[in-house]
Design goal:
Elements (H helix, E strand, L loop, with lengths): L3 E6 L2 E9 L5 E3 L4 H5 L19 E4 L4 E4 L2 E2 H7 L2 H10 L5 H13 L7 H6 L7 H15 L10 H26 L13 H10 L10 H14 L6 H11 L4 H12 L7 H14 L4 H8 L21 H16 L5 H13 L3 H5 L6 H11 L7 H22 L28
Antiparallel strand pairs: 1-2, 2-3, 4-5, 5-6
Helix pairs in contact: 2-9, 3-9, 3-18, 4-7, 6-7, 6-11, 7-8, 7-18, 9-17, 9-18, 10-11, 10-18, 11-18, 12-15, 12-17, 14-17
The structure holds carboxymethyl coenzyme *A (CMC).
């Protein structure tokens, strides 16, 4: 494999180093290109740019491979719990039993919010999207839990901050839902595991504990595992970029949540349900919706289909699809949207338009359906994605801060605006 590349500009050749990853991926190191040639690379939307070397997550979009710290996501989804997978990401290896117990106890200990944090929720109109509340309150946590030292420079502070974030984001998420429906907040319980505790805080009432369904709890574990990391996606890159300015970890994660709220990133699972609802309202006409989504440059897309990285079946979608069909069989006939989803998936996969462009269902197509089947309201779907992605964000923040050189992220641009123009005073402007 080459360890140098040659670039020719205006007849002059420049040698550029090549970096190699452990799975055979290679990148041409252009970090000194500008100082050597005055040229920069141009890559809008960073489709072909490696922004870092990372040891957290491996994806092969052509083969449909996703691994966390080397372990295939299929094995984790089948055998692991979310907090075990989170530990793997956050601390670099699978925990021993004692380590997992320590982590679990820390999550329980830190699940409650500082009493004053509750007041934040009343400052938002009840119509506020829960992602907005989540990102704002997570940012505010830095005021309540200032880190005694920089978590990137002290392992113990990193551990405690990671635990606080993991524990409190789940509670904030549930509280934002309770606020949106005008119900009192339900405190976390010490005897419940991570996902069960979340369902309890979402659905219990002050004098009526919610009966936690084991299938729903398992579904949440799987969904969170599938979302736990996805290397340099939009929200993770945002966390890294914001953190590179030495913004505190809470502010960096809050920025990631905001990025994730976009409808073509983490908001897609909500979009999928809204699309199904639209089709249902229009009499269930799948063909007409599909035809519109297949018009070139149409603003209408088939939500939950396509992916920047996967040009084959999204491996996460494969796992959740199986689970989704199991849940659908359990709920058969109970929800017309779920029936529409099944037909839509089948029809789209036969269309030449989708086949030619390698557009397959992504994780969000099925995750929305599973979440709906277990009773999670649609506007909470992106929040569920955020809870799942949290360990990935925290881990990337730490890795970015420990990388050498730890420079502030700062892309360049090709300026295409007006050339030098003189200021014209307002009284003589036309
Ligand atoms: N429906 C219809 N056409 C599509 C779709 C879709 N969902 N996705 C891509 N295309 C077409 C697109 O119009 C373009 O066609 P043409 O070559 O004729 O111009 C071609 O496929 C390539 O699309 P692109 O926009 O260049 O692809 P991208 O890599 O920039 O975008 C994407 C990836 C995920 C933003 C896009 O596929 C999309 O908008 N999908 C729907 C939203 C969605 O499901 N997002 C969740 C992604 S999974 C969660 C995550 O990891 O963030």
């Amino acid at each position: 494999m080459a360890d140098k590349a040659e670039l020719k500009i205006d007849g002059k050749a420049y040698e550029l180093p090549v970096v190699h990853g452990t799975e055979g991926d290679s990148g041409i190191d252009v970090s000194e290109l500008r100082s050597k040639t005055s040229y920069i690379t141009y890559d809008p939307a960073f489709g072909n740019t490696g922004s870092c070397q990372s040891a957290i997550c491996y994806i092969d979009g052509e083969k449909g491979i996703l691994r966390y710290r080397g372990i295939p996501v299929e094995q984790l989804a089948e055998n692991s719990r979310f907090i075990e997978t989170a530990y793997l990401l956050l601390f670099g290896q699978l925990p021993t039993e004692a380590e997992l117990n320590w982590f679990s106890a820390g999550l329980t200990e830190n699940a409650a919010l500082h009493d004053d944090v509750r007041h934040f929720f009343y400052g938002f109109p009840s119509t506020t999207h829960p992602m907005v509340i989540l990102s704002s309150v997570v940012c505010a946590l830095s005021g309540f839990h200032p880190t005694p030292k920089d978590p990137a420079e002290d392992d113990e502070v990193y551990k405690q901050t990671a635990i606080k974030l993991m524990a409190k984001v789940r509670t904030i998420a549930a509280y934002s839902y309770k606020r949106s429906i005008g119900q009192p907040f339900i405190y976390p319980r010490r005897d419940l595991k991570y996902c069960a505790n979340f369902l309890h805080m979402m659905f219990s009432l002050p004098y009526e504990d919610f009966n936690i369904d084991v299938d729903a709890e398992r579904a949440l574990n799987i969904l969170f595992i599938l979302h736990a990391d996805h290397e340099q996606n939009c929200s993770t890159s945002t966390v890294r970029l914001v953190g590179s300015a030495r913004a505190n970890i809470y502010a960096s994660i809050a920025a990631g949540i905001s990025a994730l709220s976009g409808p073509i990133h983490g908001g897609a699972n909500q979009d999928v349900m809204e699309m199904l609802e639209e089709i249902h309202q229009a009499g269930g006409n799948i063909d007409s919706y599909l035809s519109e989504a297949m018009i070139p440059n149409s603003s209408k897309r088939l939500s939950g289909f396509g992916h920047r990285i996967y040009k084959t079946y999204d491996p996460r979608a494969k796992i959740i699809k199986e689970y989704c069909h199991k849940i659908l069989r359990k709920h058969k006939g109970t929800d017309p949207l779920l029936e529409i989803a099944m037909k839509l998936e089948e029809r789209a996969l036969r269309e030449e338009y989708f086949i030619k462009r390698n557009l397959y269902p992504n994780v969000d197509f099925y995750s929305g359906i599973v979440l709906k089947a277990i009773g999670i309201p649609t506007n909470m779907f992106p929040v569920m994605f955020a809870i799942g992605r949290l360990p990935g964000w925290i881990t990337h923040w730490k890795e970015m801060r420990e990388s050498k050189p730890a420079k502030i992220g700062r892309p360049r641009q090709i300026y295409v605006g007006p050339e030098r123009t003189d200021y014209v005073p307002i009284d003589i402007r036309k």
